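Retro notes, item 3 of 5
We never archived the inputs for the UFG complex last cycle. Fixing that now. Sequence and ligand:
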Amino acid sequence: MHFLVTGGAGYVGSHIVRTLLRQGHTTVILDDFSTGHRWATQGQEVVEVDLKDLPALRAALAGREFHGIFHFAAKSLVGESDEEALLYYQNNVDGTSNLLRVALENGWHRCVFSSTAAVYGNPVTATIDEDHPKAPINVYGETKLAMENLLEGVCNSKSFGAVCLRYFNAAGAADDASIGEAHTPETHLIPRALKAAAGNGGDLTIFGDDYPTADGTCIRDYIHVEDLADAHSKAMDYLQQHSGFVALNLGTGSGFSVKSVVNACEKVVNRAIPHTVGPRRSGDPDSLIADASKAKKLLGWRPKRTDLHTIVASAWAWEQVRPVIDTDGG
Ligand code: UFG
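Structure as it came back at the time:
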């Protein structure tokens, strides 16, 4: 089959492209390269367009045929989102509205959407299922929820199917280390710890050790990006048979504290990682752990790379070979 992958030059999007190619499908990557990388496009046709530009989007995609869309293109920095609310709403929500308009005009009626646990806000239960209240605590989460709502509205009013996949903490890299995480700035724990280990990313600060958890640091559910890619592929298979809207959590159901992640990184790199303990980062909930039973049931999906060592080892293998991108932006 032939798929449109928006944001296909980004971290998670490029792994989905890789999985689709290995399954014998073909893709067109749509990306504005604001955060994506040309080296991540894996020889695929690239349409360089900004989703906010409806005439350009129409012109670039009119008359094409796709069996479905994977929609990743979005701004995704929590801190930046609270400072640039208008930018985030325009880019994420208006961009999705334009994409859906062009999809309907061209008769593409399936979308797998990259959503986030940030739609839930502060957890009110120990594990989070899809019925948990949706109360985002940052603009990023608000825009992702608005994008989900847009998709749901289109599903309810047109012949359309959408699966929203709410990731917990995406981590790791391709099994062959051909692609992986490369954000500028890098804010995520595992790559920051590994950069500190390699001595090329400054020091690592643990943001708070006074949380009400066993070791005082925040607990997160780390899900390997290859397992995310597998879930996306299964979600698109599901949409070949079903229409309507569904939202599914993607996580392993196991939580790891920040300190245990740093310990796992130290074991993988076989050296101590210099770090300090600083104040809490604003907006960090104590613990975020997925109940992903709905995705398992509906898609027949099972995460395979669930232990922390495997996740960190794959991120470390990528860290050794990744292109230097901090200065060239691409
Ligand atoms: N952390 C540190 N030091 C760092 C970086 C992170 O201590 O240098 C801590 C954070 O405070 C947090 C944990 O490590 O407790 C994980 O932080 P990340 O930044 O790696 O990930 P988040 O849990 O903040 O973010 C993830 C996704 C977001 C999503 C959010 C809420 O990356 O896209 O979960 O679901 F919005």
